[in-house]
Each structure stands twice: as C-alpha cells, then as structure tokens.
Amino acid sequence: MIITSTSMVSNDYFDHQKGTDILDNGNVLARAELTPKQAKDFVSKFYSALLILICFAPTSAIRVLLMSGSISTFLYTRHFKPVTWLKNVSVAFICALAPAVGGMSAVAASGGGPLEAFLLPESKCAGLTISLFLGIMHRELLMDVVDTSADAASGVKTVPVKYGERFGAKSAVLFAALMGVVCVTSGSRPLVGALGSLCMTLRAAAATRALNKESGGQEKCNKAIAESKLTFPLVLISYL
Description:
Blueprint: H1 2-18, H2 36-54, H3 60-80, H4 86-109, H5 116-119, H6 125-146, H7 148-153, H8 159-163, H9 165-186, H10 190-212, H11 217-237
Helix pairs in contact: 1-2, 1-3, 2-3, 3-4, 4-6, 6-9, 6-11, 9-10, 10-11
C-alpha cells in the first residue's frame, strides 16, 4: 500500500513539474488539493517509513523484491516513463509484487524457501502473479492509447506514440489473451478467469477495430478501461 501510494503521489508531482498533467483532473496537484511542498513532504516521509519497514521483511529475497519495487516507483516518472515499454513493464512489475511477496511471506512463515511459493504444485502464486502482470500491461496500454496526444505533446514515447494507436490497442488484446491462457492453465476456477479475460480481450479488440476506422477508438478504449474494473477481478477471483 505504501509503495503504491508513494508512487502515485511521486508521479503526480513530477508530471505537475513538467506540465504533463496540467489539465488532468486525476492529478491531485492539478486539482490544487495538494501543494508541491506537501507532495514532497508526503513522499519523503513515506519513503523513509517504507525503507524501515522493508528491513523487517522475513527473508532477503522478499527484501530485495520490495526494495526493487520501491526504487522503481522513485525512478518511474523521470527515468522509466520516457522509455517505450519500460514504463508499462515497471508499473506491471510493481503491481505484481503483491501476490509474489504475499506468497513468499506465507511460505517463509512455515520455514520454506523463497521459490517454494512458485514451485509447489498446490500453490497458485506463480499463475496469479503472471496474470496480474499481464492484466496491468493490458490496462496500461489502453490508457496510453487514450493519452496519446498528451504524451506526444510532452515528449513521452509510449507504445502508441512510437508505433501508433492501433498497435497499442492490438498489444493490449494480446496481453489479455495471454492472461486468459494463464488463467485456464493455472487457476482454481479456470472458467471464471477465462470469462474475465475474454471480456477484456473482446473490449480491446472492439477498440482496435474502431481505431482502424479512425472513429470512436478513444471512446471504445475508455469503455474497455472502465469495464475492466468489473471483469479484471474475475481473473483474480479465479485463483481463490
């Protein structure tokens, strides 16, 4: 929770400094709900608390993962975000840390090694981690398609900016389809996971077709992003 919250505020701060999100109502600084000084104070205090808490993680492998995630959030806006694909991969990696670290901690509590969480036959940790990574990649790519004009204007070379909006949407389709394959082969309730993945795949495919026609593509992408809030949880539920 601390990693995610500090990442969001840090990203809003640097985007505000660059003027990238000056018209974005999702940016708390653009809405004047926080001042830049308050944002800096929040991030510095929470990062300090985070580094202290990481020291209490049960194993060195977990500490390394958490430290990697923390460093990624700090470097994201200035160094990762401008690099094509790395922006999306870093966000998906940070989100996928949750099940990975959770599974490793549970196994460590019972005296097991760090990799047992992913290798034990009855464990669903590996499948859930991969599915979450692929699902976030899918969502991030669709969001990049929606933000193509703003990202291009601010010099951020996202996948849609560099390769085109249709390529970005097609990539989102691919990641959702791969997520479906993982759910079916590793989930506890494969049909539930398949349903969620299929809905996400079809919505992204509809956005791709609309972009091919050069009409309504952005609206379709926004609809796919909004509906994924309902369908993506089905993927996660399939591992319960």
